[in-house]
Amino acid sequence: MGNVPARPATKVIDALADHVGVDPTALTPPLAAAVDPDALNALVERADTADAVAVSFDYEGHEVVVRGDGRAAVQ
Question: pLDDT tens digits, residue range 4-47?
């Protein structure tokens, strides 16, 4: 069985946790306080190309940008 790629919301959680220096399970508040994880997954996973969609939102003072290929960046 091959590796299953991480879903966009999971990539965001990992990127946020890495950015603030905590374990992903210790991230507070949960991602759902800023964005609906299911809606984020659906929007990004249905993008035709990497540049077809970019979703940005604020999480605890950090700007999060997720692209159509699932890349997540935190500033």
Answer: 889 999 999 999 999 999 999 999 999 999 999 999 999 998 88
Tell me what pLDDT residue 42 has: 93
Give the C-alpha separation, 11 to 15, whole Å: 6
Q: 3-class SS at 55?
A: strand
Residue recorded with tokens 């306080």: 33
Give this prediction's pTM.
0.88
Number of H helices, E strands in the chain: 2, 3
Token representation of residue 70: 């699932």
Q: Check: CB of residue 16 under 8 Å from CB of residue 29.
A: no
DSSP 49: S
Where would I find the H helices in the chain?
Answer: 8-20, 37-45
